[in-house]
Specification:
elongated, mainly alpha
């Protein structure tokens, strides 16, 4: 029995590109996929991959700083400096609420300075 296969135009384009080697040496080739249960994984990945963080709206940039505060203070040498970094972040969060925002309001919680210091000490 002879089975005839139908190849669509798109499939043919892909096959020919593969034969020409156009998919060889793509970024990420041979690396495992970075899968996540986070529904926003794709945008977070794009922001990191394309260094778009400086373009984030202020509340989102502040949220990212809050999420990364432990990494930020990990190499800070003194407790006073850790407190200063956390206090500065809290001040910038407070100031962001004083400026009118375009678009929806994005809540950003203050950093618990004592908790940051405690985690820094534990390291």
């Amino acid at each position: 029995m002879v089975v005839m296969q139908f190849e669509s135009w798109v499939e043919r384009q892909i096959r020919e590109a593969m034969e020409r080697g156009e998919f060889d040496d793509l970024p990420g080739a041979g690396k495992p996929l970075e899968l996540s249960d986070d529904p926003d994984w794709w945008i977070k990945s794009k922001i990191a991959r394309e260094n778009l963080e400086p373009m984030l709206p202020t509340p989102l940039a502040l949220r990212r700083e809050v999420a990364n505060i432990d990494a930020t203070v990990a190499d800070v040498p003194t407790e006073d400096e850790v407190r200063a970094v956390a206090a500065d972040l809290n001040q910038r969060i407070r100031e962001s609420y004083l400026r009118p925002a375009a678009g929806p309001t994005i809540a950003v919680g203050l950093v618990d300075v004592e908790a940051v210091v405690q985690r820094w000490r534990a390291r």
